[in-house]
Amino acid sequence: MKKLIAGYMGLTKASWKTPKIKGIMDSAVKSLSKLPIELVCDKELTTTEDDAISLCEKFNSSNVDIVIMHFASFPLGAIIPAVASRIKVPVILFANPESPEEGGIWSQNSFCGSNMAAHVLKKLGLKYYFAWGKADEAAEKVESVLKVFKAVKGLKNTKLGLIGGRVPGFYTSNFDEMKLRAFAGTTVEVLDLAEVFNEAKKLSPEASAEGLAALKKNSCGTCAVSDEELKLAGNLYQAFLKIADKYKFDGLAIRCWPEFSDIYGIAPCAVIGMLNNAGIPSSCEGDIPGAFAMQIQKQFLPDSIPVFMDLISFDYKENTAVVWHCGAAPASLCRKFDETVLRKHGRVDGGDKKGVTNDFSLKAGRVTLIQFNETKEGYRMLIAAGNALDTDKFIRGNPLNIRFDGSVEKLIGTIINEGLEHHYSIVYGDIKDELIAFCKEMKIETLIIE
Questions:
Q1: Which end of the chain has fewer CB atoms within 10 angstroms, the N or the C?
Q2: Around Cβ 350, how many Cβ atoms within 10 Å?
Q3: What is the pLDDT of residue 136?
Q4: What CATH number does the domain containing 9 carry?
Q5: Which of 233, 213, 217 is nearest to 225 (CA)?
Q6: Domain containing 257: what range?
Q7: CB–CB of 288/188 below 8 Å?
Q8: Residue 102, pLDDT above cutoff 90
């Protein structure tokens, strides 16, 4: 994932420049340097219009994604429009609280400077945000905004593989490829399932053995799955890894039926779970909007693994809902590893005829559920945070019971009344606020359950 590039300028007037004001700038730069970003700045304060123009040239040559305009003090008024006319990226106006110095001197007038800048930038049509806090807390105060733009940048560099197209009758997985590309910069490339099958069949014995070992490592045991089915699954995993590397895919949407069971000989569920474990977010049933939703969550929680699910039951009294899928969850999200089993699919060909699925319930923890879908006007996102409960293995596949923060009755009513698709992406962690800010930036309509 490429780092966000942020420009920083510490503003003051030449007549206001003092060691204290320079120290305020240095404290902010030191704080910002702790963030996982590339910071572009000068060592000195920006005091004149010429200083600002020169720094803007540096920003533009560095292709900054955002500019942090720090009001170390009230600045020269001409600096703000000079900057606005030379950069085409959003600005964070960062101002500091202060107290009078000895003799009643108000040495910064920081907020007033940001107030003036907001007026000018609004008039000139440049997008801006406001952050308020001490200079040595700069990283903490601007981080939420930077996360949004890091996510926006990450999606522009994302490439998804649609393997085989959507499954029959699942119109919920339809999408406009060029609309998504124009909207987020995300590329979708379509591959035929024949390429996957061919890649799996031509593996070397060594690669096949590696795939089988990886498959067995992802589960505590097996139930009625044949050695041949395990070998096919191991080969399939290796094939997907090769294809993802060959085409530089960041995520996949896989047409998981009917061809896999009918032609290749197994269901790919356990393999899809392994791909997610390996850091390649993958959705079932050829669902690109679902795969894109997983990518959005991955931008905010790069070390977490989104999981692609149906919502299958709910209890208004307990304010809970059960999400589930038939066996494609990654083993790293299991409730207990000694409960994990590789077994035959519970529904394919009438049930218990062909493998291979992951069979276990998911772990407890804080989670965020989203559903991303296309509308005539643009896009919208359902957002709901809650606590995943300790869930017994009460059905085949991968169940998880969630008690949501907001009303489950509102959640279900929104899903049905808005005609949302039936697939959801769940990630461990509470990123509701970050997603709301992301949607605001991307002009995505939000359906928030709170």
A1: C
A2: 9
A3: 98
A4: 3.40.50.10940
A5: 233
A6: 158-449
A7: yes
A8: no
Q: What is the pLDDT of residue 299?
A: 97
Distance of alpha carbon 357 from alpha carbon 346, whole angstroms = 9
Q: Which two tokens mark 43?
A: 């060592």
Residue 358's alpha-carbon distances to 212, 215, 342, in angstroms, are 15, 10, 5
Same domain, 232 and 256: yes
Is residue 176 located within the same domain as residue 115? no
Question: Could you read off the pLDDT of 339-381 as tens digits, one per residue?
Answer: 999 999 999 999 999 999 999 999 999 999 999 999 999 999 9
Choosing from 154, 181, 203, the residue where a domain stops is 154
How many domains, in total, are found in the chain? 2
Q: What is the 3-state secondary structure (H, E, C) of 103-148?
A: CCCCCCCHHHHHHHHHHHHHHHCCCEEEEECCHHHHHHHHHHHHHH
Kindly state whether residues 174 and 135 are assigned to the same domain. Answer: no
| CATH number of residue 328's parent domain | 3.40.275.10
Within this chain, do residues 8 and 107 fall inside the same structural domain, yes or no? yes
